[in-house]
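Handoff note, outgoing to incoming analyst
You'll be picking up this chain. Sequence as last confirmed:
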Amino acid sequence: MPKKMRITLVSLVITAGLLLSFVGGCSLDLFHGRTATTGTTTTTIDKIDTNLINTVYGMIKAKYVEPDKIDAQKLTEGALKGIMDALNDPHSAYMSKSQFAEFSSSLAGNFEGIGAYVGMDNGTVSIIAPIPGTPAAAAGMQAGDLILEINGKSTAGMNANDAVLLIRGPKGTSVTLTVLHKDATQTVTMTITRATIEVPSVILEMKGTIAHITITNFSETTDQDLTPILNTIKGNGATGIVLDLRNNPGGYLDICVRVASHFIDSGTVVTVVDRNGNKTTSSVVSVSPKITLPMVVLVNAYSASASEVLTGALQDYKRATIAGTVTYGKGSVNQLFDLPDGSGIYLTIARWLTPNGHLIEGKGITPDEPLDYTKVDGLQWAIDHLNVPK
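Most recent structure output, in case you need it:
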């Protein structure tokens, strides 16, 4: 039975890499319908051959040269990790009991670590964005940095989950990262002291009569943080909104839908399509206040997951001008399953579509107005765009 049924989209696996639901129990029958080739013989695999796994363990237990080093728990964890890695899906992963507990603790919007959103860039662990005011930001980490080593261990072959769980740790302890900055040719080594990270969800800055609203991620509190801000700008004579989703890695889908509902009158916000082609829609919900001010949404290559859901909905309904660069393209819905021993897996179970049926996985959202942020101040462009008489 479900322990917690809360629909969300996966973010890029970090502080707020967020669950779709907690479900008690999980089947290991992950390869139904797959075809495996051994030599010249092709067979269809319907289920994991647990007898073969147990045979290998029996051989290890009976024959391994150093029996005192045999740890059944570690071997089990290694087998489960190998199964998940064999899916070749960067968004699916196995987590040990301690990793699962640590990962779950981040869902409340605070955690202990260095304060950076972590993802994958062409198979390499990378920084999506440092969180302002955190040790990562103070150390000079930048969006697009590649993390090549963690405490001297190469990240080659790691997924983002693996890296995050090595980078995070108790406040006051330190982690050493070998980093290649974007467009650099030489690596740098950073030793960063971990701290308790509070993730601000919504930030307001008035630029004259234009409200610059930054949503850093879609946490449990994002809508309740946004609501008073929207009430404020509704009463202070604001003439437009710049909604800044740059470097936003995503978060809870139900919160994203609530945020979208402040700006969209009615209709579908996102459609989820499962492995069988079944479609489930999330529609606009009743929220207050409703905002009709003109909007520009700023996005970049690190706007992902739930931020792409919101961007896609606002674009499809022509509710806002989308400006910036093509977004990340994270359109996978992931589910966090807890296993009987307290460990868990994070598994891709569906894809999502914008209201007009556009697939975002691997494609991203293409802005209405492309901007080269190396040449153009995105915020100033958005302000100027909103100030042009219509």
